[in-house]
Amino acid sequence: MEDRFDVDSKKVAKAKADQKNEAQADLQTLLSTYVGRRFYWELLVKCDISSQTYAGEYTHETAFREGRRSVGLDYWGDLFALDPTIYITMKNEANEREK
């Protein structure tokens, strides 16, 4: 009798690889435009990836800040996995907007 829950591990691996490739292609498309880079930069800024999350005795605030930062670090990691030089481009563009 065939187990109806048998999983073809090769198909699962291929599906995961296809999904990752699609996500990277989407990110590449987003970051290929000025507007996309500006959006992604603001996302990273809002996640406070370079800020201290500790809020003293306010443990719930610390946890909230660390959760936001964790999400930002995931996005930052995706960016660097794709192309680390895009970060420098985004930072330069942000500096120009601040002038």
Q: Which features characterize this protein?
A:
99 residues; mainly alpha
Question: How would you explain this protein's 3D organization?
Answer:
- This protein has 99 residues and is mainly α.
- The chain has one domain.
- It has helices at 9-31, 34-46, 59-82, 85-98.
- The longest helix is centred in the C-terminal third of the chain and has 24 residues, at 59-82.
- The mean pLDDT is 90.
How much of the residues is beta strand, in percent? Answer: under 5%
Backbone CA Rg: 19 Å
**How many E strands?**
0
Largest sheet: none
Uncertain segments are none
Shape: flat
Number of domains: 1
Report, as a whole number of angstroms, the end-to-end distance.
71 Å
Instruction: Find the structural class using helix and strand composition.
Output: mainly alpha
Question: Which oligomeric state applies?
Answer: single chain
Global mean pLDDT: 90
Alpha plus pi helix count: 4
